[in-house]
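Ex. 9. Protein: PiggyBac transposable element-derived protein domain-containing protein.
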Amino acid sequence: MDSHEEASSSESDYEEILQESGSDTSVESFSNSSSNSGVSADLSLVRNWCELQPDAPAPPAFPFTAVPAVNLDTTDEWSILQYFEAFLDDGLITHIVNETNSNKRFEAIHQNLHFSNNDEFDEASHPNPKLNKIWPVYDCLVTKFREAITPEKYIAIDESLLLYKGRLGWIQYIPLKRARFGIKTYMLCESKSGYVWNFIIYTGKQTNLDADYKDLPVSHRKLL
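Predicted structure tokens for PiggyBac transposable element-derived protein domain-containing protein:
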């Protein structure tokens, strides 16, 4: 029995149990709502909630058309250094080296370390002016993370707090976190492996959000 036949059998069993229980919910209506959501930006229609009975199976999962895969040409013999170089390539390393200085001035520049050209900075057109100093590195890493892996079907969105006690306008206080004060980030991760596919640094009201998803929760909008 192939995957298509298994899916059809599962839906048939589910339909029979629903008919016996007198429920108004049907696999067809569920499938229609799922297929329609595929061409709509309104993600609230991806799956309809329905009451589950002890003797009734869960409804079929929504269609998943992506192909999970590692998009890097890796081998089992790869070292940790090779994985590191896959994300921080020669271009990014060269950029970091060119923007830093000799060791004797390290202490002097430590508090003002940045990787952007101040002469080229335009606050009106920049995606996130507060992150201007580190934007080239941040943008490069996020691009690499997204290109390297196509995540599996199940993903999770969560927030993380990076310990920081310096002066910064968007420091967050979260008493339930181990590091209560710090820089908050929202991360979209693959549930199975924990791989960070996308992340965004929260900078308050200036955090870059997509207007197409204004009806979704803030944590979702930050990563879509």
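Check your answer against this statement. The radius of gyration is 23 Å.
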